[in-house]
User: Fold these one by one.
Assistant:
Number 1:
Amino acid sequence: MFTSLLVGLDGSPQAQVALAQAMLIGQRFRSRILLTHISLPPGKTSEMSLGAPWMEWTPGNAPSTRREHDQAAQLMLDDAAGAIRRAGLEVETAWREGDVVESLRVLAEQVGVVVVGRAGFRAGGDALGPDTRELIRRSPRPVLVCGRRPTQMDRVLVAYAGGPASEGALAFAGRFASITGAHLDVVHVAEDDERGRQTLARASGALSMAPLDFETHLVEGELETAIPAMIARLGADALFAGAHREEAGWLVPSHTEVILRATEIPVLVHLQTASPGARVSTAHRRTAP
């Protein structure tokens, strides 16, 4: 799962959060981290933006020529790789030229999880950048979309709807918690209390197969307000949610995008379906606080 991570760097502040988040995860899982920068094809230099705090670039004075961009990109990758090595982790770098999302999709085949910022320089003010949104649709691996700042991911909220996609996210969260000792809060937003309790009973049954530290919560209201309210109430610092696979390819379900736009913590979008009732195995348990 998190034993190998892909992190895309474009020099944006959000990408630096993704790097920091990957390093926190890496220190817990002893992860191998694959760093990449994707350069646009020749002739696209006017669209390039690359900056990093330590290089003092800003969107207004970022490299404007291919040579400047290449030098800045190499410096950025080398600097990030050095920080990872100093943290005692294995790191590789990959510099690609071409379409950003397609290049990331191909590289994702080599890792367990892709770690990205919510928006890069190409976002144009959108809280969820176009590259991030498209990568979620197409990635062959789960995508961790980072929040405003890196977190320890010690209290994980699972947005659970009861379907196969939710089962996959729940099982993945259970495996994560079994290794890290994180507390899980399984939240189901429903209007029908009886049906909601039945849905949460299935989640509880799946998680109870292993000695995990978890609680279930049935809440009413709209997803975009109920989930942030539960995050604040529980002190959650990460969220796991499922996404469906359609015949036409990976799509971002409306509820997943609602969650991403309504939260400021890391959100793991699990893109692989799992059979209902998937079991979670573990050999570890953290004592409940």
Number 2:
Amino acid sequence: MKSYYLTDTGKVRSHNEDSVTIVRNGSGEYLLVVADGMGGHRAGEVASSLAVTHLGKRFSGASSIGSMLDAVNWLNDNVSEINEAILEYAKNHFDSTGLGTTLVLALLTKDYLIFGNIGDSSGFVIKNHKLHKVTHDHTLVNLLVEAGDLTEEEAKVHPKRNVLMKALGAAEKVELDIFEVEKDVDGLLLCSDGLTTMMTKEQIEKILEEDLTIEEKVAKMIKKCNARGGNDNISIALLDMKSGCES
């Protein structure tokens, strides 16, 4: 296994509201997390950092996450705690209008692989040189696409394409969508929409196939996004499951 993560402000935004991490616990299990914050007076970075830091600390401090059912319960409990903490922060900071964050995560053990998401940050598996999206975006346009009212091409340019239907901190209760995935994959890629709105899956796949280190691949994807305008913060967490080295 080899892993690397990186975040970048991009070329348009004045500050970075994304947060990202990859952590291992005492049993060598992996947790990858990306969060894309939103809200007034830099509150977005508070919300995303709170989510990523909370999960990272709890996971790295655990000797093992246990069975898949244990993991699902652990994720749901921690997401509820994060949501409550964001709501509490917003209540005590009146300049934090619209405070919230997306969340996408992947949890890998020797026995199972699960993904979870809230919002429009994305989780992919890499298999047979292809990216396969696991998560489903909680956006207005995605609902319209699923209902047959919009095509995927129309959704990409729709004026309300950034409207979220679900986010941490947006309601008293929020549920994490959880997906069980076969472990027989070559790698995992998690990202904020700063990557997926600037690069196609095919363009990302091309970089992943290049003879580069994992660090160089992540850096090149961010560089390409910025070369295309860098309209948003860009965060990437990449895990190479076929590499013989650990990091």
Number 3:
Amino acid sequence: MSLLQILMSPAGLSFDRALVRWTGHSLLNRIFARQAGFTPQPALLLETRGRRSGARRQAALPYFRIDGKLLIVGSKGGMPTDPAWVTNLRSEPAVRVWIARKPMNARARVASGEERAALWAELLARVPTYAHYQSLTTREIPVVVLDPA
């Protein structure tokens, strides 16, 4: 069994979320970055509320700081649908974020128009793989801004 298979198991994903919460680094994101040929980004732990269940859901995600904004990207590797966490935050934009053990309440919003275009251009300069992900899908990959609450 490979390290990637272990990390993609329920126990492995749980371990990775704990690692991100405490250290700000994700083994899973590092593996994906290495395979795609870009520099691994620091990671945050995002907690949303399930849109139907109301249960807390957590996701370990790479994050970016651009023009003073904290950003995450709903790429899902170019799959045809948005990640569940994007759908959840569209329903309930109040989220909780941990960056290297520091919790923060935030309000999530999907960037649009000129703001999204400028942020997307900067994201592509940092992680060109996002252009490939966009080419794999017809949906517009969401760029999510996390504003401190």
Number 4:
Amino acid sequence: MGAMTEPRWSALAMDAVGAAALAGAIAVLPVGATEQHGSHLATGTDTLLAEEVSLAAASRTGDLVLPSLAYGCSLGHTSRWPGTISLMPTTMTAVVVEVGRWAYASGFRKLVIVNGHATNGPPCQSALLQLRHELPELRPRFVSLFELTPAIAARYTEDAPDFHANEAETSMLLHLAPAHVLREKAVDEPDRTVGRVLLYPMPAVSASGVVGSPSAATADRGKELFEQLVSALVELLAAARSEQDPPL
């Protein structure tokens, strides 16, 4: 594991990308969303968080961060609120497969998807199933920020198990990009999905597009959580980089 001065794939010339692949670097793909996050948070919140955590971690591990996928699978938000632009699940799967193929063509044999939006999981996991079939030498992994460790999962869900634009996300935006937060417009709403067994679109469970208590957010709490996320991703990338196929 070795730190890099520039972890962004898009900022490097081809020789540097090729050298990173030869050195065993992991291709890290942040996936987020462009969607409503209530009246107080920017629509690019999920993408910003996935990208910033990925860049901070990769700068310590020597891995390369691909350009973020800023459109995710956000169908549950519907057109009730402006701001959401969603891919269909099959479209997102196809895009991730294409990115994986080209990362492989550049010499990378390990791919880690770092996800910032909950319902990106199924299409991304489908993409990894297809890539494992097409490229048997590729070793992929999908991980969501909010599931990196049990402690992180508990921290994210303090105010809402099925959170959205909640205290945790708002706190991290206050730390990373305070200009993207309109604190005076923050609205708290409870998680109305607790105890239910069916799935619901966002308008059925939230009047504001928020689930959780963003009014409790602070930049200090955001900094603390962000550092937890980066440390956990560093550990995951380091383990993935050193991991070898099991002996048969």
